[in-house]
Design goal:
Layout (H helix, E strand, L loop, with lengths): L13 H13 L4 H40 L5
Helix pairs in contact: 1-2
Length: about 80
C-alpha cells in the first residue's frame, strides 16, 4: 500500500510517549494517527486565530481610512 504522507522520525520524552499511547488507546487510534489528529486540531485552531487577526487588522485599517475621509479639509 502506497501513501503520499511524509515519513520522519520523532523523538519524544518517554513520559510524553506513554501519555500519547494512553490517549491513542482510549480513542482507538494508533499512536501515529493520534499525533496526526492532535496536530491537525492545532493547525486548524492556529489558522482560525490568524484569520480572526487578519479580519480585525483589515477592520482597523478600514476604520482608519474612514476617519481620514471624514476629516474636514480646507479649501
Amino acid at each position: 500500500m502506497t501513501t503520499n504522507k511524509k515519513a520522519f522520525t520523532l523523538r519524544l520524552k518517554p513520559e510524553n510517549f506513554e501519555k500519547i499511547k494512553y490517549i491513542a488507546d482510549k480513542n482507538k487510534r494508533s499512536i501515529a494517527k493520534q499525533i496526526e489528529y492532535v496536530l491537525e486540531q492545532h493547525i486548524e485552531e492556529f489558522e482560525e486565530k490568524e484569520a480572526e487577526k487578519e479580519k480585525a487588522e483589515a477592520a482597523e485599517e478600514a476604520e482608519a481610512e474612514d476617519k481620514k475621509g471624514d476629516s474636514i479639509t480646507p479649501e
